[in-house]
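My current task is to audit a protein record that another person submitted. I need someone to confirm that the token line plausibly describes how this chain folds. Take the sequence as given and treat only the tokens as open to question. This is what I was given:
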Amino acid sequence: MIKKILRMNFKNNYKISVIGLGYVGLPLACELGRKYSVIGVDLNLNRVINLKKKIDINQEVTKNELKNAKYLHITNNHKLAKECNVHIVTVPTPLKNKTNIPDLSYLKKACEMVSKNLKKKDIIIFESTSYPGTSEEFCVPIIEKNSKFKYKKDFFVGYSPERINPGDKKHSLVNSAKIVSACDSSTLNKI
């Protein structure tokens, strides 16, 4: 994968889905939703109901930050992501049974959801923390199998490791450089 360090700068013609509205996904969806059309998807209906009431029980974003994300639509209906052309996966990858092996079940489910909503030329960006190779060796085969699209021909992949430290208001999303990589230089420039 090609790597680069830069600050986020999406062009206005992108419609973005953020899959997973936890510690990482919600701040990202709020920040992007200030300027860009964003569908924030979380399967936890109670979470969605609270966020629509501008309540984040994780206390990562404030009521004002949720209000200022005027282009953010929060839902538990992943099918609404079909209108998006950039999909950012921010689901958790907790360690299995107190081991150093990540539980990729949430990531698998997210890949299956994204693949059902994928269109040709879409970009999928993974922010979920895992071991090197997970994007191309684990995620891409799931997406290819469920979408019938081919990687690097019909859809493209990027990776941006999460930089959020839950509860740390000093080093937040907006004042930390994002590290991004992509499957090719054209995708990297778009990201």
Summary: Strands lie at 2-6, 15-19, 37-41, 72-75, 86-89, 122-126, 155-159, 178-182. The two ends are 13 Å apart (CA to CA). Confidence is low (pLDDT under 50) at residues 1-11.
